[in-house]
Amino acid sequence: MRISMTVNGRAVSGEVEPRTLLVEFLRNQLGLTGTHVGCDTSQCGCCVVHVDGVSAKSCTMLAVQADGCSVTTIEGLAQGGKLHPLQQAFHEHHGLQCGFCTPGMIMSAADLLQRNPDPTEHEVREWLEGNLCRCTGYHNIVKAILAAAQTMRGMAKAAE
Predict the structure, then answer these.
(1) Mean pLDDT of the chain
(2) How far apart are CA 147 and CA 127, in angstroms?
(3) Which residue of 48, 61, 89, 130 shows the fewest CB atoms closer than 10 Å?
(4) pTM for the complete prediction?
(5) For 158, phi and psi rounded to 5 degrees?
(6) What are the pLDDT digits (tens) for 41-92?
């Protein structure tokens, strides 16, 4: 099947088998390897991307389901060579260790902050229940997300 979509602001198309997962299309055909495959069962959240602005686990979504959609991967968050506030906060607050889960964590957190720019620690932890990190106790991940939220609120106020 021929599919077309916008990925990180760029129109792309390709031939896929109907059973091709979105994560496979992104990684294998487009070379966007920031989206990771951790479990293939939708349990770990390493594969989270945004489809039409909403977080989705790309290891359980068929590429044909994203036909005509706008997809954003971790590679699409940075703008003009400048890290997204979440990426910067994960770096500054040591919100990663091995980094394998980090793209999915950041993409999930970006969706949360789009919906709720001022979440509580409890709300962040609850939102991340679908993302597993095998290295950390989540403390610095949550700290990074809350710091990014504060930065993004400040940026929004400055833009007013």
Answers:
(1) 95
(2) 16
(3) 130
(4) 0.94
(5) -65, -30
(6) 889 999 999 999 999 999 999 999 999 999 999 999 999 999 999 999 999 9
Dig out the tokens for 148 from the structure: 């990014």
Entry field: residues in the chain: 160
Q: Which DSSP symbol is given to 103?
A: H
Give me Rg for the CA atoms of the chain: 16
pLDDT at 160 over 90: no
Packing angle of the helix pair 85-92, 102-115 (nearest 10 deg)? 130
Query: Residue 131 burial by CB count (10 A; 0-12/13-18/19+): exposed, middle or buried?
Result: buried
* DSSP SS3 for 62: strand
Strand-pairing partners, residue 79, are 82
Cβ atoms of residues 46 and 106 within 8 Å: no
- Tokens of residue 98, six digits: 């091995």
Task: Sketch out the chain's domains with CATH numbers.
Answer: 2-76 (3.10.20.30), 85-159 (1.10.150.120)
Three-state secondary-structure class, residue 8: coil
d(CA 34, CA 99): 10
